[in-house]
Specification:
By secondary structure, the protein is mostly helical. Helix content is about 40%, strand content about 0%. It has three helices and no strands. It is elongated.
Length: about 80
């Protein structure tokens, strides 16, 4: 199965113009692919995302009447 990333890699390597007819692009891609000249790009490894959790210094208290005000929401999300 051909992956979308393989087609994108072909387009980048061959500097295909955005105005090129799609069928011409696919024809060139499949010609190269069928000649076995094409080697798929190595899998992309994404670096882990580092997150810092920030918690408010005081604990949020639910309103006594159960109705949240705009200020309650701002207090909840502000640090």
């Amino acid at each position: 199965m051909i992956r979308y990333a393989e087609l994108v890699d072909y387009i980048k390597r061959n500097h295909v113009n955005w105005n090129t007819d799609l069928f011409d692009v696919l024809r060139g891609f499949f010609e190269e692919y069928s000649r076995h000249d094409y080697s798929p790009p190595p899998p992309l490894s994404t670096p882990p995302v580092q997150q810092e959790f920030i918690f408010p210094s005081e604990e949020f208290k639910e309103p006594a009447d159960g109705e949240y005000t705009t200020q309650d929401i701002l207090n909840l999300f502000s640090t």
